[in-house]
Write a structure and sequence with these properties.
Blueprint lengths: L8 H18 L7 H15 L9 H20 L1
Length: 78
């Protein structure tokens, strides 16, 4: 194996640059921002059916409670 001192400095520099570019390519991410990642993640989860429509009973319970309060108020005041 030959020493780095015996090599051409330009060749050593270009070899190091090529190694750095290769190393950076291994860690590259296909998303440039976190927002792009989250959008792709949500899209993928929707395609899998994880975000299905969930019907909540909360509005019906609130309506029934308010209606009972109104009826109770009317009965108390009459």
């Amino acid at each position: 194996m030959e020493s780095i001192r015996r090599r051409n400095p330009e060749a050593v520099l270009s070899s190091l640059e090529a190694a750095a570019i290769s190393a950076r390519g291994g860690f590259a991410c296909m998303f440039s921002t976190a927002e792009e990642y989250e959008t792709a993640l949500i899209t993928e989860r929707r395609a899998q059916g994880r975000y299905g429509a969930q019907r909540s009973r909360w509005p019906i319970v609130m309506f029934a409670g308010c209606a009972m309060m109104v009826v109770g108020t009317v009965l108390l005041l009459s």
